[in-house]
Amino acid sequence: MKKVILAVNAGSSSVKVSVYSAELGQPPAQIAEAQVSGLTAAPATLKYLRGAQAVIKNREVDEKVNGQRDAFSLILDTLVRDHDLPEIKCKDDIGIICHRIVHGGDYTKPQLILDGTYHHLEELNDLAPLHNANSLGIVHLCIQELPGARNIACFDSQFHSTIPEHIRTYPINQDIARSNRLRKYGFHGISYSFITRATAEFLGKKPDEVNLIALHLGSGASACAIKAGKSWDTSMGLTPLAGLPGATRSGSVDPSLVFHYASDVGKLSPASTKDLHISRAEEILNKESGWKALTGTTNFAVIAGQSDDDGGSSSSSSSSSSSSKRLAFDLFVDRVCGFVGSYFVSLRGRVDALVFAGGIGEKSARLRAAVVEQAACLGFALDERANNEVGAADGEGWVVQDVGREGVTPRVLVCRTDEQFEMARMCAEDEELWGV
Question: Could you confirm whether 156 is annotated as catalytic?
């Protein structure tokens, strides 16, 4: 029996929903996709694709959209009203809704969301106050408005449950650490799960046969050492803040830095609510740092020189802007290479491939070239032409492409990761999640 699966990915400023038709035990087939963007910078816009057809192209939203719940409601309404999408004639046609939940605590696999699961996830909000709440708001809405659907939580942290104890443990009082659940959890795990399977298939191996250094580089960025197909180490920690810098995140800094930064860092932010407690320190390091703090832009294409937003700026300000972008670019390359080197040693040099993924990893040829050049001492080598032509040969259909120099191992690969597909696949392959 076929089921319609909605894979929901709620970000800080957008909600993306991919729609699949699936049978138990079979790879799901995508039939539609919708996204509401610009939730933090009005006006919000709606994009809707049915199959390969662009039905709505970045239309400004007329409806009142205040946050992720409203955005999901708009997307759901768009799907139900589309008479050319016969798989969804009404809300009851939706069988499974899988939700990307950033922090899953000690959960090691996706969970059917019942009352107990939902309340446990609420308790985890303190570990990820800037991430989980938006997703749980949509979950609550689905439970209310789609009572016939099975809601499944897929966790960014679950892939990293295999990290060894000596790597995931922080050197602090262990009684306090255990009682407060303070350890490395890791994130972007749904993406790394997809990357592992797709890369293994590309290399002609089984997933449990590959050792990878994978880089998920986007506005949020992380690195992962994958040993025998399982997470061995990753750059993010207790929260997604640790590790690499991002669009607005600082990444790892001296823990005492924040206390020298401002006098009010321990106080609650004005953005806090009765359900969401955010300190000024968390706000500064998560939302007021990273490339935004260094350059004034969160667009890495501008930083990498692949786009230009300087407009008619004067020569002096243009020079200053160029200098800050160069600093941000060089800083990011340095931090990425630091993890590449560390993980190469941690994997004892047995590495099948260095894999670039995420929006930046997929699109920035300059960044890939800079990282591989700096990591050349480890045996990585780039084919300059292949690197500059990523995506050109096979249009939109590619998943993994080889940009490494011919005959050189380990390989250098680019993977177009797909978190929505990975969530839908997890549901379609698990009888318990499917509802047999």
Answer: yes
